[in-house]
Design a protein that fits this description.
252 residues; Fructose-1,6-Bisphosphatase, Chain A, domain 1; six-stranded mixed sheet; five-stranded mixed sheet; 7 helices; 32% helix
């Protein structure tokens, strides 16, 4: 019986997670991508495992992978966005967290997505069920570049804000797994800069948050992907309003 798009996303992410779990803590080969960034042989192996599932289940769809790039039919209205190992640096030094992100863009929308934590086996998806909650008061702040709004706002500035520290318990998690945690109620919010449309890193987590009923805007409080860029994701309206006010204060 053919898999649904949602089931395909989960199956593909599981295939990548299996590779990552088996290689955790083993010797790795590094492949430089820039002076400050690299992939490992496991990134490549995990992406190949993910794409093999997508090719089997959805041979007519296009794929955009972080490591191997674009494959499949050009001009397809359906493209799978694949981040085989989000948190490569963490993985390379045997430190959690890291994740596998798989999302399907159909037309202009992300219609199915899955994020898996390879170590815990936790699966987060657009099919849920997830229950956002601000009870933890934990907010993750992404301090990794790029910073397209860097002349006006740096997410790291929140970590030095007395108002922020008076309301929330900050964390700095170098993996977009933290975004899925907002959907699942493990985090109250998440803040990042960046242009995130069709991002292999962020698309799955954003879609899961939307499906769970989280509140998401760009850094200026507007619709995602249309204005200043960046992302404020919150478990509820009240938490989002607080984070937005703090970000606006930093923007000046």
């Amino acid at each position: 019986m053919a898999l649904t798009d949602f089931e395909t996303a989960v199956a593909a992410a599981r295939a990548g997670a299996d590779v990552i779990r088996a290689r955790y803590g083993t010797a790795l080969t590094h492949h430089a991508k820039s002076s400050t960034d690299f992939a490992t042989d496991v990134d490549l192996e995990a992406e190949d495992a993910i794409v093999a599932v997508l090719r089997r289940e959805r041979p007519d769809d296009a794929v955009l992978g972080e490591e191997r790039g674009a494959a499949g039919p050009r001009g397809s209205q359906r493209t799978w966005l694949v981040d085989p190992l989000c948190g490569t640096l963490n993985f390379a030094v045997a430190t959690a967290p890291f994740s596998v992100n798989v999302a399907l863009r159909s037309g202009d929308s992300i219609t199915a997505a899955a994020v898996i934590d390879p170590l815990s086996g936790d699966v987060f998806s657009t099919a849920g069920p997830h229950q956002p909650s601000s009870r933890s008061r934990i907010v993750d702040v992404n301090v990794d570049p790029p910073f397209p709004n860097g002349d006006r706002f740096r997410a790291a500035a929140l970590l030095a804000s007395d108002r922020f520290l008076g309301e929330f318990r900050p964390r700095v998690v170098s993996s977009t797994l933290a975004l899925a945690w907002v959907a699942a109620g493990h985090r109250a919010g998440y803040v990042t800069d960046g242009h995130l449309r069709d991002s292999v890193h962020f698309s799955a987590g954003i879609a899961i948050c939307v499906a769970a009923g989280c509140v998401l805007t760009d850094l200026a409080g507007g619709p995602l992907h249309l204005g200043s860029g960046g992302l404020i994701a919150a478990a509820d309206e009240a938490t989002h309003a607080l984070l937005l006010a703090m970000v606006e204060a930093e923007f000046g």
